[in-house]
Amino acid sequence: MRGLKSLLVPFAAMALLGAGAAHAAEPVPIRVGWIVPVTNLGSILFAKEGIAKNNGKTYKYEATHYQGTTLEINALATGELDMGLLSYTSLPLAIENAHLNDLRVIIDESEDGYHGGYSTEYFVRADSDIKKVSDLKGKVVATNAIGSAVGLTMRVELLKHGINPKSDVNIVEAPFPTMKTMLLSGKADLVPSALPFSTDPELRSKGRVLFTERDAMGGPSDLVFWVARKSFLDKHRAAVLDFMADYLRAVHFYLDPKNREEAVQIAAHFTKLPTKVFQSYLFTSKDIYRVPDGVPQASILQSNIDTLYKYGQIDKKIDIAPYVDASLIKEAGARLKK
Description:
Layout: H1 2-24, E1 28-34, E2 59-65, H2 69-78, E3 83-86, H3 90-96, E4 103-112, E5 121-125, E6 140-143, H4 149-160, E7 170-173, H5 179-184, E8 191-193, H6 201-206, E9 207-212, H7 213-217, E10 221-229, H8 230-235, H9 237-255, H10 260-271, H11 276-279, E11 289-290, H12 298-310, H13 327-337
Parallel strand pairs: 1-2, 6-7
Antiparallel strand pairs: 3-10, 4-10, 4-11, 5-8, 5-9
Helix pairs in contact: 9-13
């Protein structure tokens, strides 16, 4: 019996080690958020079979839709999201209001009005007597979410033309898909519209662009970028690097002109919209500018935040440098070149 026990001990130890190794090998959940379908790549990131070589192995990708970037701040704070999609307007709110001082900008996804790319448009009705921004005084204006990029950009443009957003207009919230109806039904006098919704023929024929985000910001803006908390990045660095390598593979697939027809089909399938909605612009120079290497554009982001401070949309001037970590995406990019 003593001999049997002595044989069982190492087998038991090996079994425990095996169980521990299996547990350690479980994929790390990476829960991300997105706002606008297709325009935000997170929605269709791994729709192409075979791109995500590490998904389900070292990490598990889980994407969730949010109405606006500001709503993702709460999710990051409570641990419901591991990576959030923020903008130059919501990042200061996350730092100053939610006190998420450990947030790091790790991937730059897209820029508004950069290199001639698309800029978010703000529509009034074509038959409206609103001819200039100052005519919006006393009107109803819409945003997708209070504090969102389109919302604060609109506020900046109003302030530039002498309109107090707090007292001179009535601001209402509505999802992007309903903006056209809000405008044409008279429930709002000004609405923002982002791709793909802004390509709607009825909106373009019955609506008129009063200004763009580039007009308001005086140049390109860091439209959306991926953030994560430093504790998550430090704890799961290897899995995050694998995810980022797959992210870049997906970006390169979508930006490659030879894949465009397939990309349009993916977009149409995901949104259940006709392919013609996307054929005129998606992944072309008419689309928003998508950052091919994903490296954060810190200088553009800093300029945008300085503009928000100048027009009183944030209380403190923020130095963005401590919140930007480009090392991970650069390392992932170098891995793909080997």
